[in-house]
Amino acid sequence: MPIQSLKGAVIALLLIAMFLLGVWSEATGAIDDFIFYLPDVEYLAIQHLWLTLMSGGLAILVAIPLGVLLSRPSMQRYAETLMQALNVGTTIPTLAVLALSMSFLGIGTLPAVFGLFVATLLPIARNTYAGLKGVSPALKEAAAGIGMSPTQRLLRVELPNALYVIFAGIRTALTINVGTVPLAFLIGAGGLGELIFTGIDLYDPIMMLSGAIPTALLAIIVDALIAFIAFVVVPRGVNPARH
Fold first, then answer.
1. What number does CATH give the domain 27-242?
2. Which terminus of the chain is more solvent-facing, meaning fewer CB atoms within 10 Å of its CB: N or C?
3. pTM of the full structure
């Protein structure tokens, strides 16, 4: 999305928020104050997206192979136990994960990426596992019957039929990631959380909204982008949106 379009969308959302809060009479002055923060929004939004890209990209690279591994028949004895361990991990607050990361890795980008990676990993691994386990046994038997090897069955039958569920996990995880990145400011990693938490500390609603509204917009954009990629990539017979 072009920067000018992003600016226009942010200002429009700000107007709606102020109208709902009953401060329309002060809208002109508030918009002037908001425009003052736009250079900061642009700079911090790039940091925000970079943190999402690094942590989300690492999570995808690790979680999908992990889910595939746990779905294999040779791991059947251990898979459910390991998946329950991953599920327990989702109950740990992200702020606590970031604090623990800071204890071991110091402050800055590295502990933030690690903490966000851990928080993003679990939904993707769980959906990959669930998607592969949900593939019809009849399809697997048919693939075996025509002489496909286990690797061929995985790549040509199982993964294509599990893609819709896998992308659902990626979509959920990355959207949550974008909304969680503001917490990274608390351990010195930057991002739009700088405006949100500084605005709260200074009791400056415009500064706070200058960080909160772009964060919400980025989450919407990321969700729409992953949905579009899924629409293009997932086979027609598997994707309900293409029926």
1. 1.10.3720.10
2. C
3. 0.81
